[in-house]
Structures are given as structure tokens and as C-alpha cells.
Amino acid sequence: MYILPGGSARGVEGHSGAHAVAERRGPLSWVVLLVGFVVGGCQMLLGDYTTIEDGHRCGLNAARCVGNVLQICNSRRTAWDNAAVCASDTLCDETHAVCVPPTCAADERHCQDAELQICKATRDGWALLMPCASAGLCSTERGICTDKPCEPSEIQCNGNVVQACRTDRSGWDDLYACDSAALCNKATGKCDEAACKPHDFHCDGATLETCNDMLDGWDTVKNCASEALCDPVMGSCGTANCSVPGTFRCTEDGGLEQCADNLTGWLPLETCKSAAHCNAVSGTCMEDPCVPGTRQCNGATLEVCNSASTGWDAGATCETDGLCQQTLATGSTGCVPPVCNPNDTRCTGMQPQICNAGRTDFRDNGAACLTAELCNGGKGTCGTPVCEPNQTRCTGAAPEICNAGRTDFEPSGPACASAALCNRDTGTCGDQKCKAGQLRCDPDNPTHLERCKDDLTDWEATPCDVCATAELCTASIGAATCDADSCQEPACTAGTPHCGGSGSDQGKVLEVCNDGRTGYTPCQTCVTPELCTASIKTPFSCTSTACTAPSCSPSDRWCGGTGNLVLYQCPPSRINTMATVLDTCATSGLCTLSHDNNASECVEPSCALTDRWCGGTGNRTLYQCPASRINTEATTLDTCATNGLCELTRTKNETTCEAGCAVNATQCAGTGSRTLQMCKSDRTGFQDCDTCTTAALCTDSLGATTCDTSACHSCLAGDAQCNTAGNYETCNAAHTGFDVTDCLGNGCDAVSGCLPAGTGGTSGTGGTSGTGGSAGMSGTGGGGGA
């Protein structure tokens, strides 16, 4: 029974329904599943069906895909029957319970305009293999992008389409669309006639075959139990009604029957007296009834002659009549288990086999295959060889050779550097001319920068760029792109000088642009970068003296600038015109002094221009701060008699020494000219010595030799007086006091002196003269007696 996608069931006799199913399922819809294919969950694949554990049932007529196998739930809902093996998982359509026809053949190449495409592994579409430069360079014949376009009127097959190269070689024009790619005939430039139609079936002996995808031959669907059971109209194998050709069985009324050689059913031979007289073992009608306890097979049922010899009692019922015969042969009372399940297949070496109708063993399922690998144990059929022995091809850049089993191609050595270098006719790699993306300078045109072709077979005819010099072309080989900007720009003008270098020589190396204009060649290393810069001249000549010599040493210092006030040091450049300013001094002399002291800062001025001071021996020399403002270089204004006079002159801010007073000179000054003064020891002026009683005494004291409180004279020459004792006093010669003459009590007269004895006391006129005495007596009288 076959299950329709709509869910109804129809027997073998329902030809129109089964054919409709075949039409909708496609040419592979009746191919059996591979043996041993395991699915997840609670089902396990067994031969041509999958059992379901107790308590679980599938939906009646439900469809599902297990990988690329289409299965349909059987009428008892106890197992999934294989309905078809699709070309790939994606081509199994469980929604519509069909295998979708494949779009293309495995490894088939196809050109879509300038794109070279290859059939996807799932065979449901095309994938980009490589883009060609133009449609005319896309070759399905070689399966690569060629480096030369097709020739006008050249024929190729692009899938199922016959194409001709255009006269301008720009691409291909479609001529004919064939029913399949296999029917496209490049040699005739036309389509071959199809060997069959889609969904057609026919029988080759007991082998049921269907028209293949390419319509140029037949694919085996399955091997039927016998040629008579192969039904090309229904596209199926009929059910065997018995399993062991030539075996016998007895009917309930004693009829003796034999299994037909084509297993289509039981053929009646004769009718025995009774069932007990029918011997299914020997295939005869016996004269005597059966012996009690003897056994025979009635189809799949093991029977035992009853004790009355009146007939056969049913015992165990085996899976098939063949298994009953095996059981009978062993003498067992229990059925021998099946060796295999219905439609189980396997391969024994190159020979495909299928479980026989009696399930007692496997039988050959058609002729032996060309190789053991082509024997499909899951289908019990021989696969079509994918390739011929030693046939080669290229898959992209990988050379391949037909494997020993002829089931596929396998790698033949390492992959080539590009697809174009892979020779599909020899399965070898051609010589690689260059590396991907590699650049070079054309040997014939050294300034032309060119790139390796994408297929690595040669160099592109059109240069990426034309460089200014061959050397610049060589320097551009590492460019990241191939375009008008690939050439390096000239680094300089040939012969032009430049200061370069690195590390400690940065900027010191005097270089000259080379003829190739790629950079600079060292000429000489200058002492400093600045000297290098100073060496760049036009025109330039690279000689041993090309570098400018230093104009100072690092330790050199000097005074310069306006007024030579600036203290300079030789700069790192060693060029004196670039001297480093250390300090600006107040005077040129200070700058010179700082330079002489090797100082980096100016010596501070030791005097101001207005400064004057006394120095030299005895500090009598009057000096003035010089223009250099260095006191050791002072200008001498004058040398004074004394330090005091020098200081006095300085104080007065005069340039000539003061004369001062004479040594020990005296004078009277002060109030009433009574102060006796003497010239100071430093002759800078007079100092007070004593205050005389009168101006006359002060005048009389002039010429004193000491300056103290006794410097004034006490009296004048000729001064006389009588003292209180009545004695006569006269001014001594030094004028420092009075000499006393004892009047012996006789009395005293200031004019005449002591009175003669007997005159009686001091005369009233005997005091100091009227012109004054130092005693301060009255001018009209001195001390007198009573």
C-alpha cells in the first residue's frame, strides 16, 4: 500500500493514485533509505522503515524528513516507511511530502554574466566561486575565469543552456535551453534528446528504475523480489505472496499448492483426500494420513499432525513461510527469528544485496557494482560512478583525482596558488609567475610599477603607476594599493643638500639627494645641526670641507653688544653669531671682569658712579667710583693732609681736599669770644679746649699747647691784687695764676704792693687795678682791714 500526500491510502490496483504520487514526489520518490541511518528520539531506522516504541504512534499518512530521507507513517501508525531519498536535506519537503528536484548537479559550474558560480552542496542553488573581469572571461568548460576572452562563435554549455561567444568577445549569447545540463551538447551546439521523461519508471529484470535528474539515463529505485513483481506503471514493487519458490503448502480442505517461481502467489497442484493426506514437506498427497506428531509448514504456520491423524493443528506462526521452512528444518517448535527486515539492504564487497522475501537471508540485488565503494548498502543498489579511474579535475585551486572507489574526487597534492594555475586535465599545478598582490618594476620599462594578476599566472598589462625614476619604482614595490597613487613621490630634487641623521647625529649629517630621488646620501657629519644648516649652499658640492667649521669653542665667552655690556657664551651650534646671552652687565668693565673670572653671570658693581671714599696710605686719598663701577679701578681725586680732611672733602662732595687749620693753631670763639679752641689733630677744624673768663684772657691764651680745661690763662701780665689774707699777689709769668707776697700782716696795697710795717692794715685802694684782675676784686678797692 502507498500513502498519498493527502492522507488517503490506495492499493496496488489504484494505479492512477500511485502514479499521481510519483508525479508529485519526483523521480527519486521511491528510493530507499541508507541502512543504519540513526535518528534522534525514540525511533531507530531499520532497513526501509523506522519502528516506533510501544505506546507511541505517528499520525496516519504524516510525512517527515530525517536528514535527506522522506518518510511517511504507515497505515498501522506503528512505523515510518521510507518514501524517498532526496538529493539533500534542504530538498526534502515534509510539508508537501515530496523531494524537490535539485537545481544543479554536484560540482557543476555555471556562469551568471561575469560571475563563475558552483552548485551548492545542498544542490538547491548556486554559490559564487569567483568573479571574472567580464562575462567573456567566464568559462564553464574550464570552470575558471580565463585570462583571454572567448573566441567568436565558440560554443559552451552553461548548465542546461547552449551558448555561443559574441562576435565582440564580450560575453555569451543563449542559443538553446535543454531539458537538463547533461543534454547540453557542446560538440553539436544543440540539445540531445532526453533518454526518458521526468517521473518515468521501467523495469530492468527485477530492478525498478526511474528517469534520473538529468533525463539522460535511469537510476535504480529498488530491486523487487522478482521480475514479475516489478511494476513500471505504478513505479513500485508488488508484494510477494510467498517467499520460497517451489515450497508447498496445504489448504484446510486438503488442497496442495506450490509457491510460484516469481513469488506472485501459490499455484494449485492437486487436491488430496483430506488435509491429513496433504504433505507440504514432500509436496505430495499421501495414501495414508499423517503420522501424529509430525510437522510441516502451511505457509508461515508450523503445523503438527493431530493424535487422530485426521488433520493438522496450527502451532507457531512465523514471520514468513521461508522462516517456517527454516524452523521445520531445525526441528524446533519455535519460529526461527528473521535474519533481516523487509527491504533491508547491504553490500558484500561489490555485490549489493536485499533481504529475501522469506527474511531468511540476503539475496543478490542486481549485478555487482564497479567498486565496493559504489555499492550502497542502504539502498542495496550500485551508485553511478562519479568519475573515471585516474580522471582529474580542479575544485577552485585544488587539483583532485578520482578516488579508488570512483565515488568522488580526492585531493591530488597541495592546492595551487590560484584556480587558474590548476590544470583540470592533468590534475597538476602550473608555474606560478608571482604572488597575490605582488608588485614589481617592469624590466623593460623600469619606471612602470605593475601588479601580479589575480590568477597569479602573469603580470597585469596595464601598470599601476609610472614613477618619476626607476629607483622610486623599486621603492614603491611595497605599496598597499595598485592605482595612480602607488608610486612614491620624489623625496627630493637630485643634488639638493639636506641635513639628516638620527640619534646623537640627528640634524648633523650633511646629505645630498641621490639621482634616483628616493632620498639622501650622507656627505659629511658636521659638528652641530646648525653648522650643517649653515653648510647648505647653492650650488652644493660634496667635499671633505663641505661642512662649515665652528666659529667658537664650547667654553668660549666674550663681551659684546652695545657698549660691550653683554656677556656671551659660545652656543651649542658653535656659531658665534648665535651666541648664548649669559647676562647683561652694568658696565663694560664688569662684563670684562666677569669674563676674566669665567663667571656665567655678571659681577655686581662694587660702587655707584657717585660713590667717593678715602683710602690709600692713612686713608688720606680721595677716590671716586670709576666708569667701570669697579672700586679697584677707582679714580684718584686728591690726596689730603689727613684722613679727616679727606673725609671732610668727601662729605662736602668736593673733589679737592680742604685746607683745614694748622697743627695746634688756636683761636677764640664762642660767646664773647671767650672759648679757647685748638685745631684738631686731623686739621678738619677747631675743638673747644676751655672757656676763659674774659675775651682778653682767651686772646692771651692763644698759642696754648694743650687743649684741656686749664688752657685759658688765669690772669694777664701786670695784673696785681691783694688777697683776702692781706697778702699781695701778682700774675705769674705763665699767666696761670698769682704769685703771693706775704705782707706779714702789714697790709697790702693793690697798686704798690705790701705796705711798710706800721702802716696798719691793707689799704683800701690796694686791690686789683682797674683794668681788671683775675681775682675779680673791685676796681676801687681791695680787701681791707677793719
The main pleated sheet reads as:
5 strands, antiparallel
Terminal CA distance: 204 Å
User: Helix share of residues?
Assistant: under 10%
Average pLDDT over all residues: 85
By DSSP, the count of extended strands is 62
Strand order of the largest sheet: 3-4-7-6-5
- Count of DSSP helices? 7
Uncertain runs with pLDDT below 50, 5 residues or more? Answer: 1-49, 762-786
Percentage of residues in strands: 25-35%
| Cα-based radius of gyration, to the nearest Å | 74 Å
Overall SS class? mainly beta
Shape: elongated
Task: Provide the descriptors you would attach to this structure in a database record.
single chain; 786 residues; mainly beta; five-stranded antiparallel β-sheet; 7 helices; elongated
